[in-house]
Specification:
The complex is a heterodimer of chains A (about 160) and B (about 450). With about 160 residues, chain A is α+β, with helices and mostly antiparallel strands. Chain A has one domain: 2-Layer Sandwich (60s Ribosomal Protein L30, Chain: A), CATH 3.30.1330. Helices cover about 40% and strands about 20% of the residues of chain A. In chain A, strand 2 and strand 3 form a beta hairpin. In chain A, helix 3 crosses helix 4. Chain B is mostly beta strands. Chain B folds into two domains: about 160 residues, Rossmann fold (3-Layer(aba) Sandwich); about 270 residues, Neuraminidase. The longest helix of chain B has 17 residues. The interface between A and B is large, with 39 and 48 residues.
Chain lengths: ~160, ~450
């Protein structure tokens, strides 16, 4: 994980698929409990839809901003939808769970939102159609203090801006 | 807001030399045996009582001021204010010349006496500190101010007594700026709030229309810097709490956050996030020149200057996880200083220069701790479910921080409160606020 972190920003686009597949392999070996895989939320409770079959959000592991296979699948759907609706611009909101210091979480939320934005850009969406905002841990969707609640809150959400 | 200048130090009767006094408090250790002190109600004559009712709607302002002093001394953990009902001598007589045997009888080691008059819309207060064991006066001071400043007079008396008995500046005539919180976790309303250090005189500086976070005082003036989501653009702002004017700091094409003033008050240091990467920048408040201090693909945030402005401590995950670093203030010579188990955040340099306070996360628990500026001598002061963001008292002896409680699965049971703890690890207590509260920042002493 440390290895992948140090490269994240510089070689994000090139290395993305490699790193993520490496991580996904590792995560499947950990316990799958209900709606989580590793500690990434895989349920649909909080998910809204930008259009039919286009989920608005992706979820992250603790302290991570790496996109899972499922997240990349979701973002490709968002990219397709954005291509088909070229007049729509979006804001990608990055969020963290409550188990981290406020300032670090603001930075982490920004990093997560940009991970999603960068993936949309790789799939052909113009950068000027996507803005990002980080809310850190300030806007949880689930107010519980347990691992499942936290996993729902570690997310980036793509929201229509116009 | 309170006018700072209208408090005039009028007369200094006498400062007897320290060598003669028998009582002294060592604040470098946990004080398990607080000094028994008698705080006599300040005497007020009948004419002043009438004026006091007219001016302040308070009959016995002398008693009220002595209660402010008593409460301050008590929460410091260093003093044990004695029950007034046991006092044998009348306040006016005691103020002229205490019968030391009477006060020794109730086990007082120090005594505060005083006198208050309100005339011509002016509040005059004189007080004396007596050493009961040595049977002599230790200090005597008098102040004149506007009557509405009466609580501040109590704080200043507390500071003078604290300084005389511990040899270090006090921290009572100070204020705390913090974020007031209301509503459910998923739709929390946050406002900037300011109050006296003892929880009185709460005022709200924003209305709650936009999210506000992490206010910090300028150590040299009544300015505050904080993060606001005004118009949904998270940016660092500068607020003058005397005039209420505010402005965005710098012209950054993205989120700025984690602001703090340099100790000389001339710069704001903060993080700027762009393209998924946060680095540290400064802006000079005079010429508005922006300088980039770190340039690294990791998250660099929570910067805090050393009191001599020569070094900066900050939080970075360049090692893979959140750790604490120190560098020269030009960004050179970056060194990691936290090497213990767990994650480290929110480093804050002590105003005394010798320590860095921090938040630590280890095995699901949060700690407030301190370490030397080279990372040695780590000491964890308090452990809890969630707590973070320590801020130093101006004398570097007390830390204030916020603590959150765990919610149940429905999100019930959540609270956020301010707490303080001595550097010794003793005297942990909740700081009363009118609403839930977080992100406290301690001001400098308002008067010296």
């Amino acid at each position: 994980m440390n290895f992948s972190k140090s490269f994240r920003n510089t070689f994000l686009v090139i290395l993305l698929s490699l790193i993520v597949s490496a991580c996904a392999t590792k995560k499947t070996t950990t316990k799958v409990e209900g709606q989580m895989q590793g500690d990434v939320y895989t349920g649909t409770d909080t998910v809204k839809y930008l259009a039919d079959g286009v989920p608005d959000r992706v979820f992250f592991a603790t302290n991570e901003s790496i996109l899972t296979t499922k997240s990349r699948d979701t973002l490709r759907k968002q990219a397709n939808w954005l291509r088909a609706n070229s007049s729509i611009n979006v804001v990608v909101e990055g969020h963290a769970d409550e188990r981290g210091t406020r300032e670090y979480n603001l930075a982490l939320g920004e990093r997560r939102a940009n991970a999603a934005k960068d993936y949309l850009i790789t799939y052909g969406i113009s950068a000027d159609r996507i803005s990002v905002i980080s809310y850190g841990k300030e806007r949880p969707v689930d107010s519980g203090s347990n691992p499942l609640s936290w996993s729902k809150n570690r997310r980036s959400v793509t929201v229509k801006a116009n | 807001m309170i006018k700072l200048i209208n408090l005039v130090l009028l007369t200094i009767f006498l400062f007897s030399s320290k060598a003669y006094s028998l009582i002294e408090i060592d604040i470098t250790r946990g004080n398990l045996d607080p000094l028994p002190i008698a705080v006599s109600p300040l005497f007020q004559d009948d004419n002043s009582k009438k004026n006091s009712i007219n001016e302040l709607k308070i009959e016995n302002i002398g008693s009220e001021i002595s209660l402010v002093v008593e409460n301050n001394l008590k929460i410091s953990g260093l003093f044990n204010p004695l029950n007034k009902e046991a006092f044998l001598q009348r306040p006016d007589i005691a103020h002229l010349k205490p019968r030391f045997e009477d006060w020794a009888l109730i086990k007082a080691q120090a005594l505060i006496t005083g006198k208050v008059t309100i005339e011509d819309k002016k509040l005059k207060v004189e007080f004396r500190l007596w050493d009961i064991l040595a049977g002599r006066e230790m200090m005597a001071l008098a102040f004149t101010t506007v009557p509405s400043n009466w609580r501040r007079v109590g704080h200043i008396i507390s500071d003078k007594v604290y300084e005389r008995l511990t040899g270090e500046k006090g921290y009572f005539d100070t204020r705390i700026i913090y974020v007031s919180e209301e509503g459910p976790k998923t739709a929390r309303v946050k406002k900037l709030a300011i109050m006296d250090q003892d929880g009185f005189n709460t005022k709200y500086l924003t209305l709650g229309n936009e999210l506000v976070l992490t206010p910090r005082f300028n150590p040299t003036s009544q300015m505050v810097t904080y993060l606001s989501y005004f118009k949904n653009l998270p940016r660092v702002y500068l607020l003058d709490i005397e005039t209420g004017t505010q402005e965005v700091v710098g012209d950054f094409p993205g989120m700025t956050f984690a602001p703090r003033f340099s100790p000389d008050g001339k710069k704001i240091i903060m993080s700027f996030a762009k393209d998924g990467n946060s680095d540290i920048y400064t802006m000079d408040l005079e010429n508005r020149i922006v300088e980039r201090i770190t340039n690294h693909p990791s998250i660099d945030t929570s910067p805090s200057y050393s009191p001599d402005n020569k070094y900066i401590t900050f939080n970075s995950d360049r090692s893979g996880f959140q750790q604490i670093y120190v560098m020269k203030s030009d960004g050179s010579n970056v060194k990691r200083i936290s090497f213990g188990k767990g994650l480290y955040g929110t480093p804050v340099w002590s105003p005394r220069g010798d320590l860095i306070a921090f938040t630590k996360l280890h095995k699901g628990k949060f700690y407030i701790g301190v370490m030397r500026t080279d990372g040695s001598g780590e000491r964890l002061l308090t452990e809890n479910y969630y707590q973070e963001a320590p801020s130093w008292s101006p004398n570097g002896r007390v830390l204030i921080f916020y603590r959150e409680t765990k919610s149940n699965d429905k999100g019930e049971g959540f609270s956020a409160k301010l707490w303080s703890i001595d550097l010794t690890g003793y005297n942990e207590r909740e700081v009363q606020t009118k609403t839930d509260a977080s992100d406290p920042s301690w001001s400098s002493l308002l008067s010296n």
